[in-house]
Design brief:
Elements: E1 5-6, E2 17-19, E3 22-26, H1 31-43, E4 52-55, E5 60-64, E6 69-70, H2 82-99, E7 126-128, E8 137-140, E9 143-147, E10 154-156, H3 158-169, H4 189-200, H5 204-231, H6 236-265
Antiparallel strand pairs: 1-2, 2-3, 3-5, 4-5, 6-8, 7-10, 8-9
Helix pairs in contact: 2-3, 2-4, 3-5, 4-6, 5-6
């Protein structure tokens, strides 16, 4: 069997290839846990994620290939409309409904660090994706239709998962006008947050929790990125390139949190 087509997808993982209708990835400590989660999603009818297909003869994780278009940063104009937020919110709500009640297998191993969940470490509700970067959302017919790269999936809360999606898609990450992609230069971000909240069907409690959690997440992303750069030279270049953007994002989210909270209290 040939090596297939090299893929970059939404992940920093090297050595990902497409062979036919499958994707082969290096096996990591958390791969089998994530495969168990993906198997559950498919069993309950959620089709917006890869189908897990085990391990191949070369010891690589095998997943089904998810067809569609993936947008990398910056967000292009066609991905900046409110209907994209609505479709993404509904996709994530469907993922949450499919995930609810699933118990991870004994000895489950998760990728990433639980520390970057902030306050979410105090309680968990379900397992979910937790990394809705633009490169991890697959579009079909101009709208989000599926998710890829579940490397950071782990037990979390609905509101943390929502905040993560809004970090990339509101986008809270580029809230400061100096850092916004051109497609969202004049965006009303509190409005976009509310559009997502309404489409998801966020509860009153979730709406109250969202803005303070977003501030916490923005601060932790800055601190975690700085700590990673100090510990690992591989991350130092990325830190130097992004530290000012992350600092401005934290300041902007902190300043705008009251406006976001007020907009979430308004009738949809």
């Amino acid at each position: 069997m040939g090596e297939g087509e090299l893929l970059t997808g939404g992940s920093d993982t090297q050595g990902i290839v497409r062979i036919g209708d499958t994707v082969r990835r290096p096996l990591r400590p958390f791969s089998l846990t994530v495969q168990a989660y993906l198997a559950h999603l498919r069993e309950v009818g959620f089709t917006g994620a890869p189908l897990p297909l085990g391990v191949d003869e070369q010891g690589r994780e095998v997943l089904s290939f998810v067809p569609g278009e993936v947008h990398r940063h910056p967000v292009p104009p066609q991905a900046a409309d409110d209907d994209v937020l609505v479709a993404l919110a509904r996709l994530i709500r469907s993922l949450h409904e499919a995930s609810a009640g699933w118990a991870p297998p004994p000895g489950a191993v998760w990728g990433g660090s639980p520390a970057n969940s902030g306050r979410v470490t105090e309680r968990t509700e379900l397992v979910s994706h937790r990394d809705y970067a633009t490169g991890n959302v697959v579009f079909r017919d101009g709208l989000p239709a599926a998710l890829i790269d579940f490397d950071l999936a782990r037990p979390t809360t609905r509101v943390y998962d929502i905040a993560n999606a809004l970090w990339f898609w509101a986008p809270l990450k580029w809230g400061d006008p100096r850092d916004r992609p051109a497609a969202l230069a004049d965006a009303d971000i509190p409005h976009r947050v509310a559009v997502f909240a309404d489409a998801y069907g966020m509860t009153a409690r979730q709406r109250v929790e969202l803005a303070p959690l977003a501030v916490d997440i923005a601060h932790r992303y800055y601190e975690d990125s700085r700590a990673s750069a100090e510990l690992n030279p591989m991350w130092r270049e990325a830190w130097e390139a992004n530290k000012h953007t992350l600092s401005r994002a934290e300041a902007w989210v902190r300043e705008m949190a009251p406006a976001i909270a007020a907009r979430l209290r308004q009738p949809g």
